């Protein structure tokens, strides 16, 4: 008894893995220098059996969905599919990995740490998302949806527990924990019982990889996807196979996976105090630590926990999702919303601004906005906009944001373009009894609880009881954090980053209640669409270094081995080889499907080499080291997993070098390198 038409798709959205700042920790020194795991966009389409209505949910392995990404994706979908995929029925959500390329934003604030608007980065994300939707669109078939929920243990801590304690005791007493431990899982099966895919929502920051990391990867959530897909797509290489498993973000605002908690990096003592500061070295020394013996190990442990719970919920899922598909969306000017708190009291949101604690960062990644005199000198980017920085916040904005001391009055900064969005998407998609609230940022634990409860109550009171309500985080446009009014008073990082002021959450609750009411009463068509967001005409404005011609050392050629593998290894060891390399950006601009490496095993029977691993694998690491005058090296590591079949192996590297043909023309020329063969033995 199928209920819906279902389609799933997965497409690469990795983008440039070198020289582009990684998005998340706001640390301009954290630029890409290689690849640990590929980034994917995962798309899910659900349609009525008569195909009169469709909804799309996309979870992409990126820091957050930016307004620019969303607008460009929807434009492409419109030109391909007409009015089938629209603002209201397409949700784009980011997993919030902090190890993906940045530079895909149109608002100026995000240019500072991502060095401007980086076209290859934007293009890879937009094309990857569209491609994943195309694949899902082509593979629609009859099927059924099942929902399940359960508790994930040992995978989160609240990283601002002192802010959480500002919430009323009566409210806190209703919950057993200061984080949401519940995972919600949606399972998709086709009419023949074949498994198609799943979406899991769980609230935790993908920051198991810290801000010293330079390898592009999808962090703990991406590792959970990887494990689930490897299990279901048996015999396929990572990134291949038809089963799609998305581990999507939720209300993760104050939730860290670094479960050992905050310690002083210099002295080893706990710094779990209201200021997250150390006796020696202050706040910059206070860093949270994950459960593993290094960040790779912590990523694996947390990702594995999440995957194991998802697998259990998936196997046991029996509650079927049925009912109509309805989607509601509005644009709203968040800097000017009046909120009726009660019959006599009305409050307002503010023009966006960031408080001082924004610059301090969090225990997952301490502040990088250390503006020193030296670093501002002679930087063309700062020269152009420092006058903006010096602009003092207006009295109105200061008063509106109280008690927040304003560091950047971004809502009053407009050069060269506005620094922060005013126009924000609010969106709810109902898949029968499951309501997905698409939120434009990072709701804290308690903010998310209040929002879910308010939306559920709205459905209840308009004759749609028993709705499952889930929050999808980092959707559509990025507006930083959303704390409760009480948490806002403490002005830690999350509160300082609640950009529309103390009543931001109340405004969103009012808006999402309006959407829920429209869905429950079937009056979505009467919702005013709201003011359209702007699209800025941005030139090629970036501080990412220009791609120069790649060069090789004397008497060497691209792909030559500089440091050879050993002749023998055992499982658990690391095979490592270094090649004469070229800038990986020269490859990315050629082909989205480019694989930088393979691990191959020799099959004696067929006398041929078989690929057993690629660059999307958790077990391979691709490091690019930039030298002088266009030279560079590539080191490939294969962390040989336990249970690897003994035999003869080799590692191959695939690159492109940029060559100047004339003063105006360059070409990218493919090359490859191969290690010596090596043996894996059992003893």
TrEMBL record:
<feature type="binding site">
    <location>
        <position position="205"/>
    </location>
    <ligand>
        <name>Zn(2+)</name>
    </ligand>
</feature>
<feature type="active site" description="Nucleophile">
    <location>
        <position position="256"/>
    </location>
</feature>
<dbReference type="Pfam" id="PF04734">
    <property type="entry name" value="Ceramidase_alk"/>
</dbReference>
<dbReference type="GO" id="GO:0046514">
    <property type="term" value="P:ceramide catabolic process"/>
</dbReference>
<feature type="binding site">
    <location>
        <position position="442"/>
    </location>
    <ligand>
        <name>Zn(2+)</name>
    </ligand>
</feature>
<dbReference type="GO" id="GO:0046872">
    <property type="term" value="F:metal ion binding"/>
</dbReference>
<protein>
    <recommendedName>
        <fullName>Neutral ceramidase</fullName>
        <ecNumber>3.5.1.23</ecNumber>
    </recommendedName>
</protein>
<dbReference type="GO" id="GO:0005737">
    <property type="term" value="C:cytoplasm"/>
</dbReference>
<keyword id="KW-0479">Metal-binding</keyword>
<feature type="binding site">
    <location>
        <position position="481"/>
    </location>
    <ligand>
        <name>Zn(2+)</name>
    </ligand>
</feature>
<keyword id="KW-0862">Zinc</keyword>
<keyword id="KW-0746">Sphingolipid metabolism</keyword>
<dbReference type="InterPro" id="IPR006823">
    <property type="entry name" value="Ceramidase_alk"/>
</dbReference>
<feature type="binding site">
    <location>
        <position position="96"/>
    </location>
    <ligand>
        <name>Zn(2+)</name>
    </ligand>
</feature>
<dbReference type="GO" id="GO:0042759">
    <property type="term" value="P:long-chain fatty acid biosynthetic process"/>
</dbReference>
<dbReference type="Pfam" id="PF17048">
    <property type="entry name" value="Ceramidse_alk_C"/>
</dbReference>
<keyword id="KW-0378">Hydrolase</keyword>
<feature type="domain" description="Neutral/alkaline non-lysosomal ceramidase C-terminal">
    <location>
        <begin position="513"/>
        <end position="680"/>
    </location>
</feature>
<keyword id="KW-0443">Lipid metabolism</keyword>
<dbReference type="GO" id="GO:0017040">
    <property type="term" value="F:N-acylsphingosine amidohydrolase activity"/>
</dbReference>
<comment type="similarity">
    <text>Belongs to the neutral ceramidase family.</text>
</comment>
<dbReference type="InterPro" id="IPR038445">
    <property type="entry name" value="NCDase_C_sf"/>
</dbReference>
<dbReference type="InterPro" id="IPR031331">
    <property type="entry name" value="NEUT/ALK_ceramidase_C"/>
</dbReference>
<dbReference type="GO" id="GO:0005576">
    <property type="term" value="C:extracellular region"/>
</dbReference>
<dbReference type="GO" id="GO:0005886">
    <property type="term" value="C:plasma membrane"/>
</dbReference>
<dbReference type="GO" id="GO:0046512">
    <property type="term" value="P:sphingosine biosynthetic process"/>
</dbReference>
<dbReference type="InterPro" id="IPR031329">
    <property type="entry name" value="NEUT/ALK_ceramidase_N"/>
</dbReference>
<feature type="domain" description="Neutral/alkaline non-lysosomal ceramidase N-terminal">
    <location>
        <begin position="4"/>
        <end position="510"/>
    </location>
</feature>
């Amino acid at each position: 008894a199928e209920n819906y038409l279902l389609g799933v798709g997965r497409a690469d959205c990795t983008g440039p893995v070198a020289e582009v700042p990684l998005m998340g920790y706001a640390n301009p020194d954290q630029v890409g220098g290689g690849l640990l795991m590929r980034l994917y966009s995962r798309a899910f389409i659900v349609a009525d059996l008569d195909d009169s209505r469709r909804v799309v949910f996309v979870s992409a392995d990126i820091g957050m969905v930016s307004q620019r990404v969303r607008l460009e994706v929807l434009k492409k979908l419109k030109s391909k599919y007409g009015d089938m995929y629209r603002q209201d029925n397409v949700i784009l959500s980011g997993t919030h990995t902090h190890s993906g390329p940045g530079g895909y934003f149109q608002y100026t604030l995000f240019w500072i740490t991502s060095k401007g608007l980086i076209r290859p980065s934007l293009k890879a994300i937009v094309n990857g998302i569209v491609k994943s939707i195309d694949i899902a669109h082509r593979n629609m078939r009859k099927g059924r949806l099942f929902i399940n929920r359960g508790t994930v243990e040992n995978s989160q801590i609240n990283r601002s527990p002192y802010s959480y304690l500002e919430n009323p005791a009566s409210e806190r007493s209703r919950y057993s924990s200061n984080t949401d431990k519940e995972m919600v899982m949606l399972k998709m099966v086709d009419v023949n019982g074949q498994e198609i895919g799943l979406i899991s929502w769980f609230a935790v920051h993908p920051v198991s990889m810290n801000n010293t990391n330079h390898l592009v990867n999808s962090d703990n959530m991406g590792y959970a996807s990887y494990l689930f897909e490897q299990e279901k797509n048996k015999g396929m290489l990572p990134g291949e196979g038809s089963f799609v498993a998305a581990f999507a973000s939720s209300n993760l605002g104050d939730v860290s996976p670094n479960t050992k908690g905050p310690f002083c990096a210099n002295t080893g003592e706990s710094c779990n105090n209201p200021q997250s500061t150390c006796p020696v070295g202050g706040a910059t020394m206070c860093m949270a630590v994950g459960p593993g013996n290094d960040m790779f190990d912590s990523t694996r442990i947390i990702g594995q926990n999440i995957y194991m719970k998802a697998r259990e919920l998936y196997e046991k899922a029996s509650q079927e999702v049925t009912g109509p598909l309805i989607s509601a969306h509005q644009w709203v000017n968040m800097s000017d919303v009046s909120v009726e708190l009660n019959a006599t009291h009305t409050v307002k949101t503010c023009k966006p601004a960031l408080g001082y604690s924004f610059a301090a960062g969090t225990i997952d990644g301490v502040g990088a906005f250390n503006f020193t005199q030296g670093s501002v000198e002679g930087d063309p980017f700062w020269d152009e906009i420092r006058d903006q920085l010096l602009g003092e916040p207006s009295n109105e904005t200061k008063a509106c944001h109280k008690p927040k001391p304003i560091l950047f009055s971004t809502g009053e900064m407009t050069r060269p373009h506005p620094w922060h969005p005013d126009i924000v998407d609010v969106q709810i998609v109902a898949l029968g009894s499951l309501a997905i609230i698409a939120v434009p940022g990072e709701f804290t634990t308690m903010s998310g609880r209040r929002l879910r409860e308010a939306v559920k109550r709205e459905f209840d009171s308009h004759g749609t009881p028993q709705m499952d309500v889930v929050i999808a985080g980092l959707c559509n446009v990025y507006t930083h954090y959303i704390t409760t009014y009480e948490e806002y008073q403490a002005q830690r990082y999350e509160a300082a980053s609640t950009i529309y002021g103390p009543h931001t959450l109340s405004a969103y609750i009012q808006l999402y209640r309006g959407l829920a009411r429209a869905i429950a009463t079937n009056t979505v068509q009467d919702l005013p669409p709201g003011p359209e967001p702007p699209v800025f005409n941005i030139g090629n404005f970036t501080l990412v270094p220009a791609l120069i011609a790649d060069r090789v050392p004397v008497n060497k050629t691209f792909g030559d081995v500089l440091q050879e593998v050993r002749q023998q290894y055992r499982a658990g060891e690391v095979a490592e080889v270094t090649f004469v390399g070229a800038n990986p950006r020269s490859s990315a601009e050629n082909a989205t499907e480019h694989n930088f490496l393979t691990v191959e095993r020799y099959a004696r029977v067929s006398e041929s080499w078989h690929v057993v691993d690629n660059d999307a694998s958790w077990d391979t690491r691709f490091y690019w080291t930039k030298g002088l005058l266009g030279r560079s090296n590539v080191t490939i590591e294969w962390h040989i997993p336990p249970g690897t079949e003994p035999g003869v192996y080799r590692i191959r590297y695939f690159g492109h070098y940029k060559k100047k043909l004339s003063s105006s023309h360059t070409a990218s020329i493919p090359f490859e390198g191969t290690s010596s063969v090596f043996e894996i033995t059992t003893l």
